[in-house]
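User: Teach me something about this protein's shape.
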Amino acid sequence: MTEPLWLTDPMRCMIDPIDADTFFRDYHEKKSLIVKRDDPKRFLDLLSIERIDEIVANRDLRAGQLDMARSEPPVSPDQYTFETGYIDRGGVAEQYRQGATIILPQLHMNDAVLGEFCRNMESLLSCQVQTNIYLTPPHNQGFRTHYDDHDVFVLQVSGEKYWRLYDTPVENPYRGEGFRPEDHPVGEPVEEFVLKAGECAYVPRGLMHDASTHGDEASLHITLGLIVKTWADLMLEAVSEVALNHSAFRRALPVGFAQPDFDRREAEAYFKDLMALVAKDARMDSAMDLFVDTFIRSRMPATSGTVAQFDLPQKPGQSFKLRRFAPWRLAGTEKSVVIITAGGEVHFPLTAEPALHTLLDGGVISRADLADLPDDEALDVLGKLHAFGIITPAGCADKRL
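Assistant: First, the predicted structure itself:
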């Protein structure tokens, strides 16, 4: 059985026939990309309107797990939420009937397919990836013109959406630097297009846009949001590390610095001395290592099959490979070798290091590759690797063990 493209090559699934190198060179954080194609079922493996209907009808959703929006007239939470905080299913259906968009924020946190899609993208991009789902009835618009503070890929699952792109008043806005209508006049669109089922659009942060359904069908799309770390974040961490080693950074600001007649000349000289220390002592590697470890540890591990087949490592002759897109960094101490992975770190005996190198270099390992360890320790190594979602049986699709 052929694996779906979103599972094996999620980037290609979205932007093909544009290749990833071209995208990151010519479009990423620079300009929009609209991928047109005649493949209306391309994203149906990820989601469907029937699946949305099932979620709304059968889950006890709370406020925040489902939102609704309508450009005119606006819809308020009390029109689809009980006083207990639970979602009123009938209210949702009624507001949807009257033109409101159903929004399922962060659905990847509670949906296995979207969760795996996001984890795979996170592994490729080294950033947090999230989903917001939008189902808009025909002839309606959920949001007024705005820009997002993070880059997004828009995957049109079904129906069509008419998009208008405008200017970019803020290039690469900070996270939380939201759109302010009073400060950012919209003006005329610079690009207009219809996104059809199976097509994808990339909209960089800061680019103003709006969209409404097109045609007589409801529009369902997945917004894939990229929550990135910036060079500013890295620089702040590097400066913080310098400050740990130089007490001059930790001195109080001059007494009376807020007074109207405060003379800043000495403060300016002191500031320049501190900046010289930053230029001399700041190191990218230590700050980057911290970001790498923090990113990997904060990911959600992929553990499909580890409970149902908990005893798989004990089967004679069973071989394993690295689970596709599993995040990892190899570290160690004097007493153990460590794999930093999604959720934390896993320790192994030093004698397991050759087999771990084989695994992480793309090879296949089995009990025989741990022959230098007592049998119970060897099985414990394989058991840990399996339990924490680092390995999967060799010769099997990663998703379905």
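Now, about its shape. The domain at 312-393 is CATH 3.90.930.40 (Outer Surface Protein A; domain 3). The mean pLDDT is 93. If you'd like, I can walk through any region in more detail.
User: That's plenty for now, thanks!
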